């Protein structure tokens, strides 16, 4: 890791200054608006971004919490100890990469000045927008699919020991550099680099290989792949024909494993594609609407604004196009 990146990440933040000055508890209002301590991506991510980073807050005990996003903790220097609600304790060492699903509830012991951990905030939408398919039989792929579910049905975490794995270390450094120095103008590069990083992690062995039962999760993966490539004209009937399952069974499995039905998953994917076109092309909104499979413009405008809090025109201006 370049020295200038280390120095930047090692700086004392305003929050850490307050802790060192005597306010020794984590200020929950910086992370959540809920009574339950659920770290909220809305507090940490800029509008329209799917991934970002922030250094882990040192010097204070971080109380039991979970996230409404998938978190990836990368230990750059020193160590970090976390306790899961079910009793498991992990101590991360330099080079370790810990993936936490949205259901994982854990606390973190205080870190010292030389303990540098980076938290990657990854929205669920990041994984459904990607065109890169991870290995069909890989544990990371199944973990990601289960993490998107509204119900806890899999391990809380995956832990990779990546120290000395050159491709992973290089991609991680590139990703940190991009998100640190080019936070607002290299979003596509950052997401592509994250894709490559996760693909490389797929090739590593994990020390938490408790495999996910195939069954309904395999069907969910098939359905998500279908939606990803047929978002413009896909139908539940066609998916049923391709998989050999009834529409009723598919609907029940998708709702059980993702918390969303087929129509909702299709709409989510279409809106993500619309946002991509608005950010990265000069296509008119009307052409984008047709390209993603909608015919009713008024309906598209209504659901887009409900999803992103901005009209398509405002979203495009915000993205710098």
Strand content bin: 15-25%
Count of DSSP-assigned helices: 14
Count of DSSP strands: 10
Indicate the mean pLDDT: 85
Q: Termini separation (Å)? A: 33 Å
Return residue spans where pLDDT drops below 50 for at least 5 consecutive residues: 206-215
Largest beta sheet: what is the strand line-up? 1-3-8-5-6
Q: Report the order of strands and helices.
A: HHEHEEEEEEEEHHEHHHHHHHHH
Helicity level: 40-55%
What labels describe this entry?
single chain, 321 residues, alpha+beta, five-stranded mixed sheet, five-stranded antiparallel sheet, globular
Produce the secondary structure layout.
Blueprint: H1 3-9, H2 14-20, E1 38-39, H3 41-44, E2 51-55, E3 62-67, E4 70-77, E5 79-84, E6 89-93, E7 96-100, E8 106-108, E9 116-122, H4 124-129, H5 139-147, E10 157-161, H6 166-181, H7 187-202, H8 215-229, H9 236-243, H10 247-258, H11 262-280, H12 285-291, H13 297-308, H14 312-319
Structural write-up:
It is a single chain. Helices cover 45% and strands 16% of the residues. It has 321 residues and is of the alpha+beta class. The chain is globular and about 60 Å long. 33% of the residues are buried. Residues 206-215 have low confidence and may be disordered.
């Amino acid at each position: 890791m370049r020295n200038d990146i280390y120095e930047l990440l090692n700086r004392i933040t305003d929050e850490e200054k307050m802790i060192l000055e005597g306010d020794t508890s984590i200020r929950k209002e910086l992370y959540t608006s809920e009574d339950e301590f659920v770290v909220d991506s809305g507090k940490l991510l800029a509008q329209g971004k799917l991934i970002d980073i922030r250094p882990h807050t040192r010097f204070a005990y971080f109380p039991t919490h979970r996230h409404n996003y998938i978190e990836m903790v990368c230990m750059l220097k020193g160590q970090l100890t976390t306790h899961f609600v079910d009793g498991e304790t992990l101590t991360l060492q330099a080079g370790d990469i810990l993936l936490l699903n949205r259901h994982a509830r854990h606390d973190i012991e205080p870190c010292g000045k030389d303990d540098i951990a980076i938290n990657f905030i990854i929205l669920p939408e990041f994984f459904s927008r990607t065109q890169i398919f991870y290995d069909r039989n890989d544990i990371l792929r199944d973990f990601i699919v289960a993490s998107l579910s509204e119900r806890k049905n899999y391990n809380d975490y995956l832990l990779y020991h990546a120290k000395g794995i050159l491709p992973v270390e290089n991609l991680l450094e590139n990703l940190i550099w991009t998100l640190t120095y080019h936070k607002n103008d290299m979003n596509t590069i950052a997401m592509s680099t994250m894709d490559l990083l996760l693909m490389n992690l797929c090739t590593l062995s994990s020390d938490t290989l408790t495999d996910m039962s195939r069954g309904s999760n395999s069907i969910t993966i098939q359905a998500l792949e279908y939606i990803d490539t047929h978002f413009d004209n896909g139908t539940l009937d066609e998916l049923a024909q391709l998989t050999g399952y009834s529409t009723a069974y598919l609907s029940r499995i998708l709702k059980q494993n993702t918390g969303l039905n087929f129509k909702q998953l299709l709409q989510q994917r279409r809106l993500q594609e619309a946002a991509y076109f608005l950010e990265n092309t000069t296509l008119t909104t009307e052409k984008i609407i047709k390209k993603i499979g909608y015919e009713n413009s008024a309906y598209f405008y209504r659901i887009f604004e409900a999803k992103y809090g901005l009209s398509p025109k405002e979203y495009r201006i915000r993205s710098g196009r």
